[in-house]
Write a structure and sequence with these properties.
This protein is α/β, with parallel strands linked by helices. It has eight helices and six strands, in the order H-H-H-E-E-H-E-H-E-H-E-H-E-H. Among the domains are: 49 residues, RecR Domain 1 (Helicase, Ruva Protein, domain 3), CATH 1.10.8.420; 89 residues, Dna Topoisomerase Vi A Subunit, Chain: A, domain 2.
Length: 198
């Protein structure tokens, strides 16, 4: 027996979410329809509202409801510092540290040639224009420490340095509260290489 087409459509839509496979999508769909129709309606309204009202900030490319986001509008920020992150979630994590008071540029991804993601897909030209505005003096590359994130940082770093900008990269190392015996060798090696004078 085939499920109703409306249910099949819901399962397929849920499968588009990262980390949600066919079984999880089916469980979520059945749960929403059997036990939480009000939640399903609220989810639908929220998704519709978000797609209708969210846009990309004209300056930093993050999500916002206005033309310019709250961070880019903040005159207390240091406009000479530009931090490049992969996603709005990464930006939020950096903001929560309360250690960075510059501006951002959100790539909305990272270079991944095997997945068809090149410089155009990560808004590379917009980033270069923003970084070359004559105000920015330092670009902080805060892409993730994955192979793709490292490749993205390398590509961006080479291009931005060629334009006379100071380019820095987030340091890597042992996490706060981390014990050496539980940290992988690559992280320890990087922490040793990036050690600083105290």
């Amino acid at each position: 027996m085939k499920p109703p087409s409306a249910l099949s459509g819901l399962v397929e839509a849920l499968r588009a979410l990262p980390g949600v496979g066919p079984k999880s999508a089916q469980r979520i769909a059945y749960h929403l329809m059997q036990h939480d129709r009000e939640g399903a309606e609220r989810l639908g309204r929220s998704l519709l509202f978000a797609t209708e009202h969210l846009r990309h900030c004209e300056k930093c490319n993050t999500f916002t409801e206005a033309q310019i986001c709250e961070v880019c509008s903040d005159l207390e920020r240091d406009p000479t510092l530009l931090c490049v992150v992969e996603t709005p979630a990464d930006q939020i994590m950096l903001e929560q540290t309360m250690t960075y008071r510059g501006l951002y540029f959100v790539l909305m991804g990272r270079l991944s040639p095997l997945d068809g993601i090149g410089p155009k897909e990560i808004h590379f030209d917009r980033l270069v224009r923003r970084a070359s505005d004559g105000v920015v003096k330092e670009v902080v590359l805060a892409t993730n420490f994955t192979n793709e994130g490292e490749a993205t940082a390398h590509y961006l770093g080479q291009t931005l340095k060629a334009r006379g900008l100071a380019v820095t990269r987030l340091a890597r190392g042992v996490p706060v509260g981390g014990e050496l015996e539980y940290v992988d060798a690559g992280t320890i090696a990087r922490a040793m290489l990036d050690r600083r004078t105290i």
